[in-house]
Amino acid sequence: MAGASLENLDIDALSPEQQEKLRQFKIQTRIANERYLRAHPEVEVLLSQFLRDVFLKRPVDIREFAAEFRWPMLRKEYQSLQLTVSGLFFGEQRQ
Fold it and tell me: Mean pLDDT over residues 67-79, rounded?
C-alpha cells in the first residue's frame, strides 16, 4: 500500500452522511494530534534533531538511517533534553 493516500480515494463513492462523518473524523484527529503535540514539546525537538541529521547526512536508505539513529530520548541526554525543552517554555504562556 506504499504511496496510497486518502487523496487518491474516490470521495464520491461515499454517501453524504459518510462524507460528513469522515470530515468530522479528520477534524477531531487533527485536534487530538495538536493537543498531544502541545502537551509534549519534546516531540518537536526530537523530530528537529532527526531531520537535521537527515539533511546533513542525506542517507540513501532513510529507513535504515532512522532505525540506527541515536535518538536522544534513549540515551543519557534525556535529562539534558528535558531541561532544554523546559527552558524553552518556562515562563511562556502556551496556548
Answer: 67
